[in-house]
Structure formats: structure tokens, C-alpha cells
């Protein structure tokens, strides 16, 4: 059957319509197979999700209704939809508890089905499986691992005759050389709020976790705070990079899509992003464009780690109207057949140890860094709520607009973390 792909542009409006239409009924879950299934994901996963959905429809004869939204819109609306009984059967989630669409947040309200008895659970990457769990129970199927680093246009770098920086001092010199050549070292689009976190996350791999890998546990038990920690050094360096001309003009007026366009057009060499965004960047680039990857150095040690965690993951609605189909679809996503389809459509590093895929240069470089053990936590995946991340988003935008200082931002993050 033909599936219906609905790009959700106005997520809040859609959620509001769903709420008004269903507010008088209680959520129900079907234990009998039906001929339909609803799935929701984010725009940077649209390509591979469309590919696996098409294959699943052909395999089963089911009609799948897939909705797609920008990450920020998705995280804003998914809880509203779940609470009103209008949520999809299967949907994208994030590991840990650091954003509104994360497992700890959603399952805190009882919205997620327990997936602990599924056959694929024991094949989840052992270094990150716990971020999908609460009290030992698994609530998400991971598709791929994620990391934060610089995705760059290899032709642009070659044109400039430069090499990737391996220390923070090299990075500042690199920015100066790129700027002198009339280009931008790192495209930055912090008009899109979630982009604000990426460079700090990359920098704290060096300024915080290199010396204190248990920092998040110390935050949790109250023996450490953001203020007075290596986070201050990371924010200072973020601002120093800005002053050094590492970024494009007016990052606050540039959104994430525009930042990708700067890289694809050759106006910028690279962009600091999650690997999950790479397929979207590559899909909009001119044919034949080649990309590379390097960790963003935050000190002069010469050994730079990357924040690493679970990337794309999927949960099942505890009140799914098509529960049997939802569980079957998630189980199928874990099979070699579906894995092959997903990663053919979108390069990535599998999070299931049973998966075998051929990695492209960007993913291979990141996988090599991970294999060397040069990794740090993905910070928000160890945070207890979404408030600290929200304070970071606002704080970075205020830093760049001159409305707040580093200490102000860190204090607001501490307040949010404890709240």
C-alpha cells in the first residue's frame, strides 16, 4: 500500500489540533494486529526512515503513516501528543534525560513501552546501552551511535592548502588562515537553538571529561557544579573562537540549514555537528562533494576525544493504537535486512553489535577515534532533566548577544540542573 508522508512544519499547531480532537477520549492500546501503523521522526532521519518504511510496507502490506518534524518542533510536541492520546505508535527518542524527547523524561510520565524482552536488547553497544534504560528496563531501540565533531568539505580544505587542527592553539591559527583566505572555518547557525550546545559539548570532552570522566556523577551527587568547572573554560573558548573569526558573520541570525549551505557551497570549510546530521548535509550537497571528519580540539594535548553516545533511537508508545504492529516494526528495524536499508540510505555507525555495514570516510574516521578510546560522554545523556540543556540553549544565545556572561550562564545551568 502507498504510505502517506506528512512533513510537519507547524508542530505546535498540529499538536494543538490533535489535542482538541481527542481530549474527550482515553488513550487506548490494541493488542490485535491491524492494517496500519503511525511513525514519527525528525527531519534529519527522513531519508532512511522513508526507505525502511517502504520496505516494511512491501514486506507486510501494512499502511504506514510517517510524520516528520524539525528536531526542536518534534521535542516540543511529542509529549503533548502522548499525553493527549494522539501520539504515534513508534517515534524517535533520545537516550538519557537531557531533552524533552529523552527516554528518562518521557518514561517519567509512563509513555513508553518496556522493550526489555525483545531479542535485540543484548546486542546494544555495551558502552551506551544503559542510557536507554531505567531501573534496568530498556525503553528504546538504538539505530546508530552518535558523536560530535567537525564535518568538513574536503575540496574546500584542499583548495586552501591547510591541514586539520589537532590542538586548540592550532585551531585558532587555522581559523585565522581560513579567514585570511576569505572563507569561514566553522559554519555556525545558533538561531536554531539545539545547535548552541554542539561546540561546548565538543570542547568539554577536553576541558572537563579528559581529567574528570565522572563529572556527571559528581553533578548528580552535588559534589560538583557547572560553575567553577571546566565548563567555564569551554565557554570562554567558544567566545574566543568567535572573537578569532572562526565563525560566519551573525551566527545568531543563521539557522542550521543555512550553516549546511555554507559548507556545501564552499563558503565554509566545515561545521561542528552530530554525526546524525551528516546524511542531511550530504544529501543537499552538489553531486560529487566529499566530506571528512575531525574532533574539535579543546586543549593542546594533541589527543582529542569526541563526545559519544546513542544517536537515532526508537520507542513504542505504551498506549499505541497498533501495539502488535509497533513491536513488530521495531523488532524488524533490528534485523540485518532493515539495518542494511537504513545505512545504505544514511551513513552511520551501528549501535547494535550484530550489525555489519560499510562505513564511508566520515563515519570511518569517527569510528576509528571511538575505537581508540578517545571518547567522552554526550553530556546531556547523563543529566536528570531537560532544564539544564534548555538553560544552555538560552545562555549561549545570550553570550553571543552580549546579554549574559559565562558565570551567568553556568549559574543558570546549575539552577536548572538541580530543579
3D architecture notes:
The chain has 419 residues and is of the alpha/beta class. The chain folds into 2 domains: 4-143 and 311-353, D-Maltodextrin-Binding Protein, domain 2 (3-Layer(aba) Sandwich); 147-308 and 367-418, Periplasmic binding protein-like II (D-Maltodextrin-Binding Protein, domain 2), CATH 3.40.190. It is built from 16 helices and 15 strands. The chain has helices at 11-22, 46-60, 71-83, 103-108, 154-160, 168-180, 198-207, 215-221, 230-243, 256-264, 278-283, 323-333, 336-345, 361-371, 387-401, 406-418; strands at residues 4-8, 36-42, 63-69, 90-93, 133-134, 137-138, 141-142, 144-153, 184-187, 268-274, 291-294, 306-310, 313-316, 349-350, 375-377. The strands form 3 sheets. Strands 8, 9, 10, 11, 12, 14 and 15 form a 7-stranded mixed β-sheet that branches. The protein has a 6-stranded mixed β-sheet with strand order 1-3-2-4-13-7. It has a two-stranded antiparallel sheet with strand order 5-6. Helix 2 (46-60) packs antiparallel against helix 13, helix 7 packs across helix 9 and helix 15 packs antiparallel against helix 16. The model is unreliable at 1-30 (pLDDT under 50).
Write the layout of secondary structure elements.
Blueprint: E1 4-8, H1 11-22, E2 36-42, H2 46-60, E3 63-69, H3 71-83, E4 90-93, H4 103-108, E5 133-134, E6 137-138, E7 141-142, E8 144-153, H5 154-160, H6 168-180, E9 184-187, H7 198-207, H8 215-221, H9 230-243, H10 256-264, E10 268-274, H11 278-283, E11 291-294, E12 306-310, E13 313-316, H12 323-333, H13 336-345, E14 349-350, H14 361-371, E15 375-377, H15 387-401, H16 406-418
Parallel strand pairs: 1-3, 2-3, 2-4, 9-10, 12-15
Antiparallel strand pairs: 4-13, 5-6, 7-13, 8-10, 8-11, 8-12, 8-14
Helix pairs in contact: 1-3, 2-13, 7-9, 15-16
